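User: I'm writing a short report section on ligand binding and want a predicted complex to refer to. Could you take this sequence and pyridoxal-5'-phosphate and write out the structure as tokens? A short remark afterwards would be nice.
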Amino acid sequence: TLAFLNNQYLPLSEAKISPMDRGFLFGDGIYEVIPSFDGRIVGFSAHMQRMENGLRALEIDNPYDRDGWKSIMQALLERNNQELGDSVGVYLHISRGMQLTRSHGYSEDLTPTVFAFAFKIPPSHSSQPEKVQGLSVSLAKDLRWQRCHIKSTSLLGNVLHFQEAKRGGKHESILFNSQKEITEATTSNVFIVEQGIVRTPPLDNQLLPGITRKLVIESLINENIQVEEVVITAERLLNADEVWLTSSSKEIAPVISVDGNQVGNGEPGPVWRKALLAYDLYKFS
Ligand code: PLP
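Assistant: Sure. The structure tokens for the complex follow:
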């Protein structure tokens, strides 16, 4: 595939950065993953807004305006279309840049390193909901840092949680804080359904403000399906009728088992199906 590195398009296998890049040494950077279907980008302005917020939080200058980012994305989509097909995610990464002394403190005049590439994502579930397999997830104490609302490239906490779930044969891990309240999963946000009402934890520093989460909430409101942002305890999650995970590459994925406990009747639920259709109608709007 063709990638983008510091204003240049080049084969992904030839992209190289300095080992003194602060992204490499410290995970000092921000990233985004933006989905597209048939060349149409989902949630572009919301993804840009989140990236701008993250860059501001890290005091990294945004190297491009929104039009600049859009042209990079479109070029990657067009030039990789043959190879990647119609369901494609674009990864954008901005690190603070290269600094020739290793110090936690950063110089304020570094040139950010910009890297982007496109990759295949699964086709949208909405075309064939009956073929969707429910996910099995584990439940674990959230051991990450207290700025999970920043989409930072420092992902070690998420990586360790995810690998532990994988080792246990699970697809994902849903995390709870020291009050036993659900925060999110390692690569996705969490929703539950109780007696037809959809609920998801409110945004704060403990979770990423997922763009899929945002679009799902808006699409449910559009279809008059009741949705609430409320604290959800782990116990409540274990008794929910349905559990879903949302992310740019998963869209809305039904969970059928949490920590070995069956969710509902052990199959993707009816509200999930409705939500999937509502989201599909809404996602390009
Ligand atoms: N939470 C975490 C920790 C994530 O890494 C992600 C995305 O990968 C999400 C939530 C979902 O965010 P989005 O819907 O913007 O992909």
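A remark for your report: The radius of gyration is 19 Å. Helices lie at 22-26, 44-58, 66-79, 81-84, 156-167, 211-222, 234-238, 270-282.
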